[in-house]
Design a protein that fits this description.
With 439 residues, the protein is α/β, with parallel strands linked by helices.
Length: 439
Amino acid sequence: MTDLFTTIVSSPVARKVGVPQPTRLRRYEPGMPLCEGPVLVAGGGRFADGVAAWLGGEGVAAVSTLPDEGDKVGAVVLDLSAATDPADLDQLRLLGAPAVKALRRNGRVVVIGTDPATLTDVAEVTTQRALEGAVRSLGKELRGGATANLVLAQGQAHDGVRSAVEFFLSGRSAYVDGQVVRVDESTSGDVDALRPLDGKVAVVTGAARGIGAEIARVLARDGATVVAVDVPAAGDALATVANEVRGTALQLDVTSDDAGSRIVEHATTRHGGLDVVVHNAGITRDKLFVNMDDDRWHSVMEVNLRSVLRMNDAILGEGGLADGGRIVCVASIAGIAGNRGQTNYGASKAGVIGLVTALSRQVADRGITVNAVAPGFIETEMTARIPFATREIGRRMNSLQQGGHPKDVAETIAWFAQPGAAAVTGHVVRVCGQSLLGA
């Protein structure tokens, strides 16, 4: 979606006088290479050799030293999981700084560390926790569409590390920057790289338009059979999306008491099971707090939060979501940083984050993961109606200096839904280009 500001700064006159240009982000398409150019893998941690071997198997050149001066690398993976003292952090600077200078456009920096929550030695905890501040800061310095993200591993979490590194290196994470993902030792089997959701049945609420419709498309592209859910008033648009992805449409109001049971019944009777649930349906009813009325407050809470709790009761009951299934919620950076005029919306989305934290622990013994995405400024019909000045500020207030696309949100959800992401649960990943708002 082209906006007025982008049109102006991309004009020949603006280019001639040196106005900075937003970089066209490298977004994933089936069959595209994992990254462009060789990947520097260094740092000496316990995952480096495995990552290098896996990259080689994917046809990506993994190098242990930088190429000749003037040559570029597509990404750098620094494994600092063995760092135990702040002095060891020198490797981040000594190895990373030259590599960052050699990054191509849309390059990637992925740092691997050890989850401080699994450590007891004060110096080790201090060292590993320091990686988060360094990576988030680096993400704000990178230009040309490059991103920096951190993977924190528990024990010998080789499968989880590989899946997270693959996501962060690929075009799937084009609008994910400055994020931290913790992976446990859960294992996953081999999956088809092009159709990792083959044979899975996925439900998407709020699927008639915008982000929800794109989620349905991306899950279907990755092999899932999609049940597209939305209110009856959106029936025509919903049918169009369902037909496009060769799935089925289910018209219902997510706030109804029987919404969860109807979703389970539809998925199991029409498609034989239920493997992935994406709670995307949501509304906004903005008003300053002192002027907030009952309808605005309660309608947002019902749709965005209480409906999810009720539906999950049925979805997680007998005959519902399969063991090893996936629940993915759509939160918002408004639930992290707050937003003027959105106390109701911010409360509902912060509640979703709390739901993810608590529920992920309760269903862990069934191999079910529960995660969330927190979108920032995403180019949709809704954001197109925001007043011009506010809209332009929202687009630029992130490290990538542009708004995201619905597909960016969908790609992160699709990664959470993959069998390979079994080691990631209880997480909220911001899809916001590393917004300057929030943590």
